[in-house]
């Protein structure tokens, strides 16, 4: 009996010893996770300076959307437009913040220096609640699809942008043959297919430089016309009809969201600790962007009132050389920006399908894939040939999904078993953001589709 008791006692002690050892190892592993700082383990060959990161973020948020802000203000009026610009800027900044913060925490957990947007989403689900782990690959595919949708939807806007500018130019020089915007979209198909066949990013650098120069000059000319001879405030609404407010939100989100380039910029910074915080690269950039967008929206709407078009460049005088120069330059800039924006979705799609295609057919397959991609954007542009409405539709569906929905879901899943804060404030905050996303998605799509139906029925 004593031997049995001794045996039981010995077995119990062994189990306790093993359990204690396991707990000790787990604590040591947790300590290692706590000690690992991903920012200190990044080995970037050509790191970006803090100032360089600021300009990269600024460029991602400034583009054709800036020229659409006066039309956005037309949908709300002056006062709601100012408030809405600040609101969208704050929400967009916060969503970038939670995405980057979550990515860094996941890097710490997985002990890797950096993760891309897509990798972050996959790893969050892979290390999240057990019931959600099997969906990690599906989330990756969804995020890739959202990325491709943002780029393809954005490039459809570019097609309308170029076509509308070309129509203005040719209507002035050849007034006897005035074609619809859809015709110019069709004419653009072949040139866009040809320029999109460039498959290496380094060969697109000259086009990027030229596009930036053209945009800067265009913006300067536009400001000259906008701030010259401002009319009294009688031709604008302080508060417009509530029914069109959703178009403002989706347009502003389209204009200001640059979240698809955030992770590459943050991952390649020489001092990534400067990206978040206060002051920080992110906060300073978004404050500057909000002010610039607000100024362009306010004064552009004050200048042209309810007659402002989807791009303020389309409102410039037809018979003046300076105005025509701006229209030509913006068409050239957006044309070259098109191939830059198409690079990412084409690369994402090709990565997914190339493993199913024999290597001998890779070249032909890429040509076909890129041709179909361009054709799809042109078809969408022809289907919705109104620049303002297409921007609203693309912003409501694609940009809001990538910039609002995904960061909110990713942070919630990541925090679910790691503490949602006092009174679960993270959960409540993200629930409000999710409601905001649904409002933007549903109301933005409804308002845009209603306008399209009433305009083209």
Automatic annotation (TrEMBL):
<feature type="domain" description="Amino acid transporter transmembrane">
    <location>
        <begin position="46"/>
        <end position="448"/>
    </location>
</feature>
<feature type="transmembrane region" description="Helical">
    <location>
        <begin position="431"/>
        <end position="449"/>
    </location>
</feature>
<feature type="transmembrane region" description="Helical">
    <location>
        <begin position="78"/>
        <end position="100"/>
    </location>
</feature>
<dbReference type="GO" id="GO:0005774">
    <property type="term" value="C:vacuolar membrane"/>
</dbReference>
<feature type="region of interest" description="Disordered">
    <location>
        <begin position="1"/>
        <end position="41"/>
    </location>
</feature>
<protein>
    <recommendedName>
        <fullName>Amino acid transporter transmembrane domain-containing protein</fullName>
    </recommendedName>
</protein>
<keyword id="KW-0472">Membrane</keyword>
<dbReference type="InterPro" id="IPR013057">
    <property type="entry name" value="AA_transpt_TM"/>
</dbReference>
<dbReference type="GO" id="GO:0015179">
    <property type="term" value="F:L-amino acid transmembrane transporter activity"/>
</dbReference>
<feature type="transmembrane region" description="Helical">
    <location>
        <begin position="367"/>
        <end position="384"/>
    </location>
</feature>
<keyword id="KW-1133">Transmembrane helix</keyword>
<feature type="transmembrane region" description="Helical">
    <location>
        <begin position="275"/>
        <end position="301"/>
    </location>
</feature>
<feature type="transmembrane region" description="Helical">
    <location>
        <begin position="390"/>
        <end position="410"/>
    </location>
</feature>
<feature type="transmembrane region" description="Helical">
    <location>
        <begin position="205"/>
        <end position="227"/>
    </location>
</feature>
<feature type="transmembrane region" description="Helical">
    <location>
        <begin position="141"/>
        <end position="161"/>
    </location>
</feature>
<dbReference type="Pfam" id="PF01490">
    <property type="entry name" value="Aa_trans"/>
</dbReference>
<feature type="transmembrane region" description="Helical">
    <location>
        <begin position="321"/>
        <end position="346"/>
    </location>
</feature>
<keyword id="KW-0812">Transmembrane</keyword>
<feature type="compositionally biased region" description="Polar residues">
    <location>
        <begin position="1"/>
        <end position="24"/>
    </location>
</feature>
<feature type="transmembrane region" description="Helical">
    <location>
        <begin position="181"/>
        <end position="198"/>
    </location>
</feature>
<feature type="transmembrane region" description="Helical">
    <location>
        <begin position="247"/>
        <end position="263"/>
    </location>
</feature>
